[in-house]
Amino acid sequence: MGATSSGPGPAPAPVRPPQGRAVGSWVRALLGRAGPVPVPGSGLALAPRGPAEEPPLPGWPLPQLVSLFLPEFPVRPSARQQQLKILGFVAKGSFGTILKVLDCGREKVCAVKVVPKVEVLRRDTLKQCKEEVSIQRQVRHPFVHGLGDSWQGQRHLFIMCTYCSTGDLHALWRAAGRFTEATVRLFAAELVLVLVYLHDLGIVHRDVKMENILLDERGHLKLTDFGLSRHLRWGERAHTICGTLQYMAPEVLSGGPYSHAADWWSLGVLLFALASGEFPVAPAGDHVAMLERVKQSSYESPPALSPALARLLAELLCHNPLHRLRYLHHFQGHPFFRGVTFDADLLQKDPVAVAVAPRPPEQPPPDPATFADFACDLAAPPGRPWPG
Fold first, then answer.
1. Is the alpha carbon torsion for 135, 140, 145, 151 positive or negative?
2. What CA–CA distances, in Å, run from 312 to 274, 276, 370?
3. Is pLDDT above 80 for 279?
4. What mean pLDDT is reported for the chain?
């Protein structure tokens, strides 16, 4: 085994597609109309607004800042948004804030991702943002964290999903240190079914990692975060360097071309860490340095792992993507999965041999608030999610 991390460390930061493209005059005009943060070269320096301060959307004809995001982000009546009561803060990502909300109309707790439109335009990720929602609308699978709804206000996009109260696989792994092979086998089978399903639909996820896998109340997995996913037809190749460094396949780190096989490499890294308690290769500062470490590593499994699991990892962490495991029958006939039925309904009945604890309580707002009357501070750090 090559260079390894000393143990479970901080979550590796995701690598996003290259940014910094020139901002055209029409985009600058839209940014000025949105009134957010300074845009290089535009002379704009307007303060961002929260969802609560959103003025009502105008009638027809719709302005370009609204029509740009159609049809993936439809315009919803303001009464629909007023039914959402904010219960707490969940997380803050590079693009927006995730809130825990109560849908009073359906009496259901959900998670809502709030994304400023200005960030989408400034980062030139409009196409990717729309494809994320398009993919989530298309996907229906027991082990996928599906989309509940999406809509837009004048200044923000809203993406609603089911709320998972038990957190993600990374938090569980850090608490456990490592998992038994029986647990790894169950988790691996669930993820194999998900990836085969996505690839059959012509979708490559591109960011398979522990932090993007939620757990339901019984401990079964839900793959989430399709922010870097894209439709990729069979025979087509991608070239964008994106994902999370420690999970990225060598062909992704080198700038492509790559295909759906890159997801199977990421699965191999994930299973290696789940079973051994450490990543096969220590993280590097950028994709160039990471590629060199990946090339130099032999990816030998720790002696404590069974021969069947070691063989599975070797066949997933294969530098040649054409020789990597990638079809369902490869896994059905693999010795590590002997006795496993690759059926989602049956797998969900299998007990998970780890204790799944609920998330710690989120910090609630000072008073009950709805999207209509609560000023969510999108720029606040996680330690201070609510303006005082």
1. positive
2. 13, 14, 49
3. yes
4. 81
Query: 169-347 — its CATH code?
Result: 1.10.510.10
Distance CA 154, CA 261 (A): 39
Percent of the chain scoring above 90 in pLDDT: 57
Tokens of 265: 């490499």
Residues in the chain: 388
Find the mean pLDDT for residues 185-190. Answer: 98
Question: Shortest CA distance to 131 belongs to which of 36, 215, 202?
Answer: 202
The per-residue pLDDT for range 304-341, each reduced to its tens digit, is 999 999 999 999 999 999 999 999 999 999 999 999 99
Poorest-confidence range of 188-197, 301-310, 364-373?
364-373
- State which fold the 23-165+363-370 domain adopts: Phosphorylase Kinase; domain 1 (3.30.200)
- Range 160-188 average pLDDT: 93
Q: Given phi > 0 = left and psi -120 to 50 = alpha, else beta, which region is 95?
A: alpha
Marked catalytic residue, from 207, 216, 225, 263: 207
Could you give the C-alpha distances from 285 to 15, 241, 245, 319, 350, in angstroms and in order?
11, 14, 9, 21, 40
Per the annotation, the verdict on 103 as an active-site residue is: no
Q: Render the burial of 235-249: b for 16+ CB within 10 Å, e for the rest.
A: eeebebbbbbbbbbb
The residue extents of the domains of the chain are 23-165+363-370, 169-347
Which pLDDT tens digit goes with each residue over 333-362?
Answer: 999 999 999 999 999 998 887 766 666 655
pLDDT computed for residue 13 by the predictor: 54
Other CB atoms within 10 A of residue 234 CB: 9
Return the sign of the alpha-carbon dihedral for residues 125, 126, 129, 132: negative
Q: Specify the range with the lowest mean pLDDT, choosing from 48-52, 77-81, 182-186, 299-303.
A: 48-52
